[in-house]
């Protein structure tokens, strides 16, 4: 279990092409890893054996009553955001009103994704994870002909009209688990219409985009513990 080659393969599986080398020093944090095992234990990464979940709650004003113009109802809206990472570089994100006990089951089967789930790929850069997502409502025939540019973090859709979501999250820790928190740092919507890109940035307030916290999901272990090679 202390064999360095096993730990090197584990690091490659987590960080891929951005793994770097052991003798390279993190200039920003002045961190040096003395072995591949040391890197796997101390370096920021995402957890595969579960799901990152956040809960958003806000009040929405309803319409005035026809019988009493001074009465206007207030609705309490609650919804959850789910992000699931996989060892092969894929990522799923879903926004739903379902409680976590039901919500995690909707992104359990990675081969049969619901239309309301965003799918894409992610890359790790230090303590930042970058996601590039798009809607999964494409037909299977279209998905089968998706091309991928060398070095790209996201399969390229041949459709000239597409919508992509570019997200950056900072990895944080909880007192009981490392890399258990994801904090929003950047969120951009890019719409492509007739080969013209239009981007819009989201206002990342704590109320609308609270931090996501990792929660283990037993049914995800099969994909998370897949063989290294």
TrEMBL record:
Domain of life: Eukaryota
Gene Ontology cellular component annotations, sorted alphabetically: cytoplasm; SCF ubiquitin ligase complex
Protein name: F-box protein Hrt3/FBXO9 C-terminal domain-containing protein
Organism encoding this protein: Drosophila subobscura (Fruit fly)
F-box protein Hrt3/FBXO9 C-terminal domain span: 35-149
Parts of the chain that traverse the membrane: none
GO terms classed as biological process: SCF-dependent proteasomal ubiquitin-dependent protein catabolic process
Keyword annotations: Ubl conjugation pathway
Pfam families, per database record: FBO_C
Keyword flag Transcription regulation: no
């Amino acid at each position: 279990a202390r064999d360095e080659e096993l730990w090197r393969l584990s690091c490659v599986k987590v960080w891929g092409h951005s793994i770097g080398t052991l003798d390279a020093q993190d200039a920003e944090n002045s961190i040096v890893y003395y072995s591949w095992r040391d890197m796997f234990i101390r370096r920021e990464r995402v957890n595969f054996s579960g799901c990152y979940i956040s809960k958003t709650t806000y009040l929405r004003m309803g319409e005035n009553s026809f019988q009493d113009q001074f009465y206007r109802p207030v609705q309490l809206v609650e919804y959850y955001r789910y992000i699931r990472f996989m060892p092969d570089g894929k990522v799923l994100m879903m926004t739903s009103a379902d409680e976590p006990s039901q919500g995690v089951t909707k992104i359990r089967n990675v081969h049969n994704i619901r239309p309301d789930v965003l799918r894409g790929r992610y890359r790790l850069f230090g303590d930042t994870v970058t996601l590039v997502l798009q809607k999964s409502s494409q037909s299977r025939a279209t998905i089968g002909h998706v091309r991928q540019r060398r070095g790209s973090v996201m399969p390229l859709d041949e459709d000239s009209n597409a919508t992509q979501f570019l997200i950056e999250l900072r990895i944080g820790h909880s007192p009981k688990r490392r890399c258990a928190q994801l904090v929003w740092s950047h969120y951009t919507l890019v719409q492509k219409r007739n080969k013209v890109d239009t981007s819009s940035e989201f206002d990342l307030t704590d109320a609308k985009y609270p931090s996501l916290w990792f929660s283990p999901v037993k049914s995800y272990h099969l994909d998370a513990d897949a063989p290294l090679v």
